[in-house]
Amino acid sequence: LFLKMGKVCAIFGGSRGIGKAVAELLAQKGCCLAIIARNLEVAQTTARNLGAGHLALSCDVSSEQEVQNTFEEMQRNLGPINYLVNAAGINRDGLLLRTKTEDMIAQIHTNLLGTMLTCKAAVKSMIQQQGGAIVNIGSIVGLKGNSGQSVYSATKAGLVGFSRSLAKEVAKKQIRVNVVAPG
């Protein structure tokens, strides 16, 4: 990301793991952050530890209404969103034959649908700003697969196709979309 001081960045899944590491780096670079997680207390702790001027919000990314409310609250408190990082994800490892349908749906809703919903909300804001950048956190298993992670792998592979297509949709609006696949 090419960063400027005071840019507003929303980090979904920013309270722990990769999202938290990204938040720490962006805070050092002078970004104004919204740390968004399902658990508000954990998000608040992370935001506090980053210093003053950051926002902590609770959001279930699989709920379109919660995502919309979260973006409205960020806009009110921090201003228009310049950067979006999607690091929210769940992983329920298990062989497909032993995986409950509810667990499949939960992973698809959080990892794939959730990213689609946050991107949709962010793109609306970024078009008005005439630009922005989105980074979706995928996984190496989305590219290579892994035994016992077929559902998780599918959601992360889906992010690749989604991000590539969205990048083509919004490139003319000066919005960059990328996937990072750690592992």
UniProtKB/TrEMBL annotation:
<dbReference type="GO" id="GO:0048038">
    <property type="term" value="F:quinone binding"/>
</dbReference>
<dbReference type="Pfam" id="PF00106">
    <property type="entry name" value="adh_short"/>
</dbReference>
<dbReference type="InterPro" id="IPR020904">
    <property type="entry name" value="Sc_DH/Rdtase_CS"/>
</dbReference>
<dbReference type="GO" id="GO:0006633">
    <property type="term" value="P:fatty acid biosynthetic process"/>
</dbReference>
<keyword id="KW-0560">Oxidoreductase</keyword>
<dbReference type="InterPro" id="IPR002347">
    <property type="entry name" value="SDR_fam"/>
</dbReference>
<dbReference type="InterPro" id="IPR036291">
    <property type="entry name" value="NAD(P)-bd_dom_sf"/>
</dbReference>
<keyword id="KW-0443">Lipid metabolism</keyword>
<keyword id="KW-0275">Fatty acid biosynthesis</keyword>
<comment type="similarity">
    <text>Belongs to the short-chain dehydrogenases/reductases (SDR) family.</text>
</comment>
<keyword id="KW-0276">Fatty acid metabolism</keyword>
<feature type="domain" description="Ketoreductase">
    <location>
        <begin position="7"/>
        <end position="183"/>
    </location>
</feature>
<dbReference type="GO" id="GO:0016616">
    <property type="term" value="F:oxidoreductase activity, acting on the CH-OH group of donors, NAD or NADP as acceptor"/>
</dbReference>
<protein>
    <recommendedName>
        <fullName>3-ketoacyl-[acyl-carrier-protein] reductase beta subunit</fullName>
    </recommendedName>
</protein>
<dbReference type="InterPro" id="IPR057326">
    <property type="entry name" value="KR_dom"/>
</dbReference>
<comment type="pathway">
    <text>Lipid metabolism; fatty acid biosynthesis.</text>
</comment>
<keyword id="KW-0444">Lipid biosynthesis</keyword>
